[in-house]
């Protein structure tokens, strides 16, 4: 079935559970995996109405493939909640935030005096006295001098972005257990993180995948042995909808996200890892021209659906297998 018809059919089917989903709803908070410094945690999240009723209704549908397809799309249909007061707690520090437009929360949590943030910090969200969400903020070791910013789709995960029909089928009928990693990438990234015996190097995942896929992507990384790290995914606005893979949206999102990371860690240089199926070479080259002393290298995987003319990007190293990058990644500093 053509990708657009898959999307239309699924959109129609998604309204079926609605009548049974009116009761027992509660506020939930998706605390997104983010990053921070010893001085401040950057906490981001989304406040939404719990979908327990929807899940029960989906469970009563007769066909397994139908249940799977609707369940996969359910995160995109969350009813977000604005003007909700959320209390955040992390290692004894509390901060209150009110959800804004489309349920978004975003706040900087300063470290307590004399106790800088370190390592992996758990952030818990409360609403009306009840815990309604938990997430992680990663604080790189301040001694780290090199980090990695990596794309996900067709870079470390076999997605096939160039084949929209395949993308839609895999999305609707798959999950984190069926998503396939690019062979050898998890090992390469783990070895990069551990290459310096004195300090763990950080990895930041910057992807054009939309934020509703946060949990599935996090499960994919964990199940396939990738190093943990913050996820910076594409924020869906009211006009984006199914067109979230448009080139202009991808370019703006990734460029801004990488700039933010470089600005947050001025003493750190970075390797940039992407693929040739979208626009990573152009995005990374643009960032490198703005931060010439901060980008240590640009590496672009030939993903089999190339849209990139390699000759246009002399600063990029194009590769076929992660083994080609071992020397550069392990000796970077």
Task: Offer a few descriptive terms.
alpha/beta, Immunoglobulin-like, Rossmann fold, 28% strand
How does this structure look, described?
The protein has 9 helices and 16 strands. The protein is α/β, with parallel strands linked by helices. It folds into 2 domains: 3-139, Immunoglobulins (Immunoglobulin-like, Sandwich), CATH 2.60.40.10; 146-331, Rossmann fold (3-Layer(aba) Sandwich), CATH 3.40.50.1000. Helix 1 packs parallel to helix 4 and helix 7 runs parallel beside helix 8. It starts with a helix and ends with a helix. Residues 1-24 and 239-244 have low confidence and may be disordered.
CATH superfamily of the largest domain: HAD superfamily/HAD-like
Main β-sheet description: 6 strands, parallel
Overall mean confidence score, pLDDT = 86
Radius of gyration: 20 Å
Low-confidence stretches: 1-24, 239-244
For the record, the CATH architecture of the largest domain stands as 3-Layer(aba) Sandwich
What is the name of the CATH topology of the largest domain?
Answer: Rossmann fold
Whole-Å distance between the termini? Answer: 48 Å
- Work out the number of β strands: 16
User: Strands of the largest sheet, in order across it?
Assistant: 13-12-9-14-15-16
Secondary-structure element pattern, one letter each: HEEEHHEEEEEEEHEHEHEHEHEEH
Helix content range of the residues, please? 25-40%
Share in β-strands: 25-35%
């Amino acid at each position: 079935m053509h990708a657009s018809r898959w999307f239309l059919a699924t959109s129609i089917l998604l309204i079926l559970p609605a009548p049974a989903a009116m009761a027992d709803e509660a506020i939930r908070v998706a605390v997104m995996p983010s990053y921070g410094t010893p001085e401040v945690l950057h906490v981001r999240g989304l406040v939404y109405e719990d979908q327990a009723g929807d899940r029960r209704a989906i469970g009563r549908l007769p066909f397994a493939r139908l249940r799977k397809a609707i369940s996969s799309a359910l995160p995109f249909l969350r009813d977000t909640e604005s003007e909700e007061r959320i209390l955040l707690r992390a290692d004894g520090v509390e901060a209150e935030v009110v959800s804004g437009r489309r349920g978004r929360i975003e706040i900087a949590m300063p470290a307590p005096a004399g106790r800088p943030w370190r390592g992996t910090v758990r952030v818990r969200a409360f609403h009306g006295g009840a815990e309604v969400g938990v997430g992680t903020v990663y604080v790189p070791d301040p001694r780290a001098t090199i980090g990695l910013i990596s794309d996900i789709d067709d870079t470390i995960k076999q997605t096939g972005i160039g084949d929209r029909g395949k993308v839609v089928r895999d999305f609707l009928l798959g999950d984190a257990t069926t998503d396939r990693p690019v062979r050898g990438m998890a090992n390469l990234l783990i070895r990069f993180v551990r290459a310096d015996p004195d300090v763990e190097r950080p990895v930041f995942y910057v992807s054009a995948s939309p934020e509703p896929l946060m949990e599935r992507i996090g499960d994919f990384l964990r199940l396939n042995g990738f190093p943990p790290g913050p996820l910076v995914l594409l924020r869906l606005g009211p006009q984006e909808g199914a067109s979230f893979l448009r080139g202009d949206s991808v370019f703006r999102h990734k460029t801004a996200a990488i700039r933010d990371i470089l600005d947050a860690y001025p003493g750190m240089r970075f390797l940039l890892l992407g693929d040739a199926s979208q626009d990573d070479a152009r995005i990374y080259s643009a960032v490198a021209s703005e931060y010439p002393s901060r980008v240590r290298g640009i590496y672009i995987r030939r993903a089999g659906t190339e849209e990139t003319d390699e000759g246009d990007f002399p600063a990029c190293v194009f590769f076929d297998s992660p083994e080609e990058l071992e020397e550069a990644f392990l000796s970077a500093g």
